[in-house]
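Tokens in:
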């Protein structure tokens, strides 16, 4: 199946091919986070720089932090409360799901969804070993979230939706699974200028969280078109890409990390 790289874009991307490349990259992130061949930084030092609290990180399994490939901090925007039900889209090796679990407590529930087997298996193993009974990791695509409608208090996501060609569909799914009055709190990569086809058609840059990044106004419009009211957007200047090619694209097109919060109306 092919879809436009951005709404109205002439460039088409092959979704199955892209998913295969993304899965390959994030399998390596789960298995070999320390081998230094990634376009992006991972791990505890970056998490602390982005704003994660050391007290939370101290209670999260260390291997989940080593494979943390998020792009920003948003838990202050999420304002999770004990007992809440949270869905983490693209949960990776589980770091954010574990941070959420600390905040919702044992009366709450956190469900992570990820399409990459190695990420899910690592996260599940770590949850079992550390006794996070309120966390579960499910297989699935976030364009078709395998959960009932209207049950989540908060959807969280970190560095993932840029990897999805059909962002409108993902946000429609977010709106579907949230209860009325529920909220979305997330971080992601966007751009100031639309990306040219030599970047959007480069599968490696796509899997590195650059090639699929949407122009920031189009991104916000996609959130709002799903029926979610954007309540806060801020930039995360502490996030930076590592490789020369990624840094070049960042400079030229204003590729940057943002944290965003949105709310579903109560009706
Ligand atoms: C950049 S990593 C971020 C992982 C995690 N949020 C973190 O902060 O470490 C992106 C994750 O999203 C997953 N992913 C990407 N596209 C997806 C999709 N369409 N459906 C489900 N998972 C997806 C990948 O498998 C990968 O684990």
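Residues out:
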């Amino acid at each position: 199946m092919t879809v436009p790289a951005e709404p109205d874009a002439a460039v088409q991307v092959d979704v199955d091919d892209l998913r295969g490349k993304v899965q390959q990259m994030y399998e390596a992130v789960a298995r070999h986070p320390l081998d230094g061949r990634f376009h992006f930084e991972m791990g505890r030092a970056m998490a602390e720089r982005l704003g994660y609290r050391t007290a939370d990180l101290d209670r999260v399994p260390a291997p989940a932090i080593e494979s943390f490939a998020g792009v920003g901090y948003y838990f202050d925007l999420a304002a999770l409360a004990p007992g809440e039900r949270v869905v983490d889209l693209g949960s990776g090796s589980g770091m954010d799901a574990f941070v959420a679990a600390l905040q919702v407590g044992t009366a709450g529930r956190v469900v992570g969804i990820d399409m990459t087997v190695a990420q899910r298996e690592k996260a599940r193993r770590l949850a079992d070993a550390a006794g996070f009974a309120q966390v579960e990791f499910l297989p699935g695509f976030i364009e078709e979230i395998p959960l009932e409608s209207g049950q989540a208090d908060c959807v969280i996501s970190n560095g993932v939706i840029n990897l999805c060609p059909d962002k409108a569909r993902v946000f429609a799914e977010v709106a579907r699974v949230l209860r009325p009055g529920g909220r979305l709190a997330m971080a992601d990569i966007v751009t100031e200028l639309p990306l040219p086809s030599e970047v959007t058609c480069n599968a490696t840059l796509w899997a590195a969280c650059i090639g699929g990044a949407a122009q920031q106004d189009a991104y916000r419009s996609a959130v709002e078109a799903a029926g979610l009211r954007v309540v806060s957007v801020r930039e995360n200047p502490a996030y930076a890409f590592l490789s020369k090619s990624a840094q070049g694209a960042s400079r030229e097109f204003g590729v940057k990390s943002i944290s965003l919060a949105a709310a579903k109306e109560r009706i």
